[in-house]
Amino acid sequence: MAIAREWLSTALGAALIAAGFNGFLIPHQLLSGGVSGISMLVGYLMQWNIGWLYFVLNLPLFIWGWFGIGKKFVTLSFLSVVATAVALQLIPEARFNEDPTVAAVFGGVLVGLGTGLSFRSGGSTGGFDIVGSILLRKRDFPLGGFLFALNGVVIIVLGVLERDWDLALYSMISIFVTGKVIDVVHTRHVKITAFIVTTKKDDMLKRLLSTPRGVTVVEAQGGFSLAKKHMLMTVTTRYELQGLLRAVREVDPHAFVNMVETVGVMGLFRRE
After folding, report:
1. Rounded distance, CA 23 to CA 18, Å?
2. Contacts for 170 with CB less than 8 Å, ≥ 6 apart
3. Three-class SS of residue 93?
4. CA 24-46-169 angle, 5° bins
5. C-alpha distances in angstroms, 167 versus 85, 88, 161?
6. How far apart are CA 198 and CA 232, in angstroms?
7. What residue spans define the domains of the chain?
8. Which residues does 155 contact at the CB level (< 8 Å), separation at least 6?
9. What integer pLDDT is reported at residue 211 of this predicted model?
10. Residue 114 CB: number of other CB atoms within 10 A?
11. Contact of 29 with 44, CB cutoff 8 Å
C-alpha cells in the first residue's frame, strides 16, 4: 500500500510539472531552473524535444545519486523523470495567457507542487534536486531556498550568454515561486520538539523508540491532581509529526502533547 502511494504521488507530481511546463513556461519561452531549464534552452534553440532532453541530461545525476543517496531514492527519482518526460508528450502545449508574469507565477506553483510531491514520496524530480537532497542530509536548511539559489546562478549565466534579461528575470520569478511552494509541501527540514505527558511511560517509550528519533524521559507530577506522570521529549520533523501524534493517540488517548517549532538542533540527530 505504501509503495503504491509513493508511486501514485510521484506520477501525480510528474503530471503537475508537465502541466506547468507545457501550460505556462514553454509557451512563453520561459526557463525553469537547473537541468530542466537547460533542457528548455537547448530545446528552444535547436528545436529538439524538451521532454527527452530532460531525461537524457538527468542520467549522469542518477548515477551520482545511486552512490550518494540510495537505490530507493534514485528509483523513485528515475520514475519521476520518466513520467515527466512522457507527460510532456501527452499534455498538449497551450498558451493559457498572454502575461509572462502570470505565466511565471502559475507555472512556478505547478512545478513546485509537483516537485514537493515527488520529495514527499521519497524521491525527487532529478536535476539539481538530487544535488540538494545529497547536501540536505548533512545540513539543516530549506530545500526550496537552496534550489532557488542554485538555479538562480544558472539563470543569471544564461541571461548573460543569451543577452535576454527579460527572459531571465521572468524565469527567476518562476523559480522563486517554485522554491516557496516546495518548502510548503516538503517540510522535512522543519524540526519540531514534542513534549508528551503520559501515565503510560513504558508503553509510550517502547512505541516511540521504534522510530528513528531518540527520546528523553523526565519524571513529572500533575499540578492539580498531584498524580505521578512522565514527560517524554523527542525532536522530529514536521513531515513526520502526524505519524508521531498518531502513535501517541494509539498508546494513550489522554496524553498531553505540547509541540514547539525548533530553531536548531546540536548533537546527534538522524537527518535521513
Report:
1. 8
2. 28, 30, 100, 101, 103, 104
3. coil
4. 40
5. 23, 22, 12
6. 8
7. 2-185, 191-262
8. 31, 33, 37, 168, 171, 172, 175
9. 74
10. 31
11. yes
Question: What's the confidence (pLDDT) of residue 158?
Answer: 66
Buried-state track 81-98, b at ≥16 Cβ within 10 A, e below 16: bbbbbbbbeebeeeeeee
Which grid coordinates are listed for 216? Answer: 528523553
Angle at which helix 201-208 crosses helix 238-251, to 10 degrees, equals: 150
Bridge-based pairing state of the strands 256-262 and 216-221? unpaired
Burial class (CB in 10 A: 0-12, 13-18, 19+), 267: exposed
Q: List the chain pLDDT tens, one digit each, 272 residues.
A: 667 877 888 899 999 999 999 999 999 988 887 788 888 888 888 889 999 999 999 888 888 777 766 677 788 888 999 999 999 999 999 888 889 999 999 999 999 999 888 877 777 787 776 766 666 655 655 666 666 677 777 677 667 766 678 888 898 899 889 888 887 886 656 788 999 999 999 999 888 888 777 888 999 988 888 888 999 999 887 767 777 888 899 999 999 999 898 776 666 555 55
The residue behind cell 524540526 is 191
Residue with cell 542518477: 62
Say what the pTM is.
0.71
Sign of the torsion formed by the C-alpha atoms of 212, 217, 221 and 225:
positive
Give Cα separations from 186 to 55, 61, 145, 161, 242 (angstroms): 23, 21, 12, 33, 14
Half-sphere exposure of 168 (CA within 13 A, CB side): 15
Domain 191-262 top-level CATH class: alpha beta
